[in-house]
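quick q for whoever's on today - can somebody do inverse folding on this one?? i tried earlier but teh output was garbage lol. tokens:
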């Protein structure tokens, strides 16, 4: 099992110690051209977590490769690059640009950002186009839509190497006094504890529907949360909102997960993958890993 961050929830250049406590660092989403993102206010707290409407703010692929990527590769052991776009061509162009970069361990295709207006609808087309231009491992990041299992199958058929589940869901917060939206954009992406049961359902469904390894994320704040995602079918875990309030979350979650695994009779995290499905499906997709769970720094890849 690898422990990662959810894209956009950690800056490895300002918090390198936190990033190095993970097995891989996932960048903010990179697009072909620079983007300023949405106008503020872009972040709001809610009772169930956090709303964000950043809008894919990033320097664009050329500046990212020339300036940001070398700094990241010197700060962390393994870099996954989140890739976004507004057409199939956008995704393919960015992935082709990254293909020759040895510092990039994997690519996560952000196929479901709720904070921009134009995103490609055909996941299969995007995955196929990017598969044609890069040999990097491709993980398709999906939102927990009602047809997420079908979408996951389309990603698998098009050549994806894995799934990242789940992205945020749309939510709204109103100002206590004015009863108008807190976020300038209105709606934003909801993350945090409220997302956890939704993420579990998506991971559970996609584990049954595909043969792909899954990075599970959505409201993970404790080792128990991580264990439940493993049981639902995730082989790796990503921390998101928890990193904003607790920079020590990676070490704490590892320790808590180790205790939870022992309490449930699992020798290591891989043995827990798919446990919620019973004996029929669990062995089929067991994720094998030689990485240590709790001690030392682990290399992803």
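ok took a stab at it. sequence:
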């Amino acid at each position: 099992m690898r422990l990662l961050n959810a894209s956009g929830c950690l800056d490895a250049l300002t918090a390198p110690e936190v990033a190095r406590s993970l097995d891989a660092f996932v960048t903010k989403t990179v697009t072909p051209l620079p983007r300023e993102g949405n106008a503020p206010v872009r972040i709001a707290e809610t009772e169930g977590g956090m709303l964000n409407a950043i809008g894919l703010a990033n320097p664009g692929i050329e500046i990212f490769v020339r300036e940001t990527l070398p700094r990241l590769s010197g700060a962390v052991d393994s870099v996954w690059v989140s890739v976004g776009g507004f057409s199939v061509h956008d995704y393919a162009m960015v992935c082709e640009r990254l293909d020759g970069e040895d510092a990039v361990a994997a690519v996560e295709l952000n196929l479901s950002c709720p904070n921009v207006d134009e995103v490609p609808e055909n996941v299969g087309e995007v995955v196929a186009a990017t598969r044609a231009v890069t040999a990097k491992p491709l993980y398709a990041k999906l939102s927990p839509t009602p047809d997420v299992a079908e979408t996951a199958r389309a990603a698998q058929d098009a050549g994806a190497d894995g799934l990242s589940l789940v992205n945020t869901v749309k939510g709204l917060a109103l100002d206590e006094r004015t009863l108008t939206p807190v976020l300038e954009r209105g709606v934003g992406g909801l993350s945090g504890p409220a997302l956890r049961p939704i993420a579990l359902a998506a991971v559970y469904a996609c584990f049954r529907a595909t043969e792909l390894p899954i990075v599970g994320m959505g409201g993970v704040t404790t080792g128990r949360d991580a264990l439940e995602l493993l049981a639902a079918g995730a082989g790796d875990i990503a921390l998101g909102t928890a990193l904003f309030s607790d920079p020590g979350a990676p070490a704490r979650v590892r320790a808590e997960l180790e205790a939870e695994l022992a309490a449930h009779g699992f020798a290591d995290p891989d043995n827990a993958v798919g446990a919620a499905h019973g004996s029929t499906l669990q062995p089929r997709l067991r994720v094998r890993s030689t990485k240590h769970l709790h001690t030392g720094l682990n290399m992803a890849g």
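fwiw The chain has a mean pLDDT of 91. also The chain has one domain: 3-36+55-170+192-285. so keep that in mind when u check it
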